[in-house]
Amino acid sequence: MRIEYNIYCDESCHLMHNTGKAMVLGAIWCQKSKRHETFKRIREIKTKHGLKQEFEIKWNKVSPAKTDFYLDLVNYFFDDDDLHFRALVIPDKTILDHLAFNQDHDAFYYKMYFDLLKVILSPDCSYNIYIDIKDTRSQNKVDELCNVLRNSHYDYHDQIIKKIQQVHSHEVELLQITDLLTGAIGYLHRGLQGNTAKVKLIEKIKERSGYTLMKSTLYKENKMNVFIWKPRTLTNE
Q1: Would the CA dihedral through 177, 179, 181, 182 be positive or negative?
Q2: Number of folded domains that form the chain
């Protein structure tokens, strides 16, 4: 009997020409059977801070007025043993030479998603992968990503990757937490300091994880897993 997991994925500054050099892909995962319990707990934290249950948690919304709320969310993530996070950081996407590797930015995007997820995926389990809807072209990207992941895992009967589905983040609390943690990693790697509340959240994540978040963690780190991607260079060999 396969254990079934849900993985919730988000991105920060993933487009080639948007602002910010650092590109980050992030994913939270937990057993599917635990998802309603986590959704309920997040809604309780919203209620505790006087927010409606429909309030959407987003890194871009972090402000000094809601610092305690977001700190409670970070602490909840670290206190719940069922929740796990992995981030893949491309420190400077402006130096990427896609032509040299016979690819475009979309192909690179799929490769990075594969690198993000390959540590999470186990051939003995099954996974439902949920990705935040980005734009009108995103369904094509999702279909391609699904094909790439299944082929790379010889998953020809869809037993490992059951589905990859686009969802609206305001409807899925764990996708919102992914946005929060992914945004924090991106903010740190862009060297930003202007928002005091965001800086406090990053310091709390560092404290609770025990990592600087600027270097790769151990490959099998299971709670706050960070991988700093480095471009390989072409040689004449």
Answers
A1: positive
A2: 1
Query: Does residue 234 lie within any of the structural domains?
Result: no
Domain holding 211, by residue range, is: 4-228
Q: DSSP code of 230? A: -
In a domain, 169, yes or no: yes
CA–CA dist 165, 132 (Å, integer):
9
Residue 64 makes CB contacts below 8 A (sequence gap 6+) with 195, 196, 197
Q: What is the pLDDT of residues 160-189, one digit of tens each?
A: 999 999 998 888 999 999 999 999 999 999
Residue 173 exposed, middle or buried by CB count within 10 Å (0-12, 13-18, 19+): buried
**What mean pLDDT comes out for the span 1-21?**
77
Residue 9 within any structural domain of the chain: yes
Between CA 199 and CA 184 the distance in angstroms is 8
The values of phi and psi at residue 228, to 5°, are -95, 110
Can you give the pTM of this predicted structure? Answer: 0.89
Note the pLDDT tens digit of each residue in 46-61.
999 999 999 999 999 9
Backbone angles phi, psi at 144, to 5 degrees: -65, -45
CATH number for 39: 3.30.420.10
Q: Which pair of structure tokens corresponds to residue 188?
A: 């740190």
Indicate whether 236 belongs to any domain.
Answer: no
- Least Cα distance to 192 among 19, 26, 9 occurs for 19
